[in-house]
Amino acid sequence: MLGVPRQKRGGEDRKIVNWNLDDKPILVFWETTRACDLACRHCRASAIPQPLEGELDHQEGLALLDQIVAFGRPSPILVMTGGDVLKRQDLWALLEQAQARRIPVALSPAVTPLLTDPVVDRLADSGLSAISLSLDGPDEATHDGLRGVPGTFRRTMECARRAVSAGLKVQINSTVMAENLRLFPAICERLVQAGVGVWEVFFLIATGRGTELSAPGPEECEAVCWMLHEASGYGLTVRTVEAPFFRRVVHQARTGNARDPGPLARDLVADLHRRLGQPSTPPRSHTARTRDGKGIVFVDYQGRVSPSGFLPVVAGNVRQEPLAGIYRESPLFRSLRSAEAFGGRCGRCGYRDLCGGSRSRAYAASGDCLGEDPACVYQPEGFEPLLA
Q: What predicted TM-score, i.e. pTM, was given to this entire model?
């Protein structure tokens, strides 16, 4: 996770093990606004050009910063997202106040005319831990088609290169859909060419406008995970969102305890090798045992607190109660952090703590956020706890 102290082990960056995920999250996502000038076909927030009523105002934003400080040191990382965070008129003041409170901040702006070269340079000078940009295809036809605005692909690549050259840590976010999953080796090639260091891959959840697109099936998710593990050998730190079974794949790859990943995985890996040659560095696949509600908390534009932006179950509101109290004491959050509460295959699986399945996808599929993740292909024969 961005900004968390790490130590090197076996070629992978690992979170220092003394971070108590029951006590505080690693990441606090704040949906600063739902206003955005893009019309992305898979937008979780179903964003619109103008802010919605009830948005946390500046003073309430400062109060939220104080609530993050109340978790104690080291501070969780604040990820300011949207909508488009650049639509917040008080963005620069909030960044200044977060820095004064020693809160590490990562920013997730939309690539619109608001993200000019001077803005990128100013962000590089603002003390940000990282900036994340979205890229869902390796070319204009794919990416611009999903984003709904011509020229977005070109500008995204320009902003990524400029941010890298300005010294910003750049993360690229990509969403896996049935429509684009075969393009992921080509996306990886683009990132390596641009000098991007972190690739965070979202696996589509049917929420917001994402219900209009096709989510990948279990075999497709498995194949993409195997390709992503291979991609982490090209100098990229690879993480997944709503695909915690990626950690199982990584563990199986490292221990040699894996079945044949199938023809699609072999095709994707072969395409990656054709483009980039054989991997040149040890794999840098992220395997911290976080999931929705465990190490992660989401505050929406009205202050409502959920386990993630893809799991629309509200546990409280920062306007009425402290964020730390909600995260630590809410029955919803406590149950999500306890892998023993999971049902179906996830509850019987030896990887249930390392992985635990996507709680958001379980909820979208069945209405039960403790149910099994239908996108995972793994079939546990019986509960055998993972010891290594």
A: 0.89
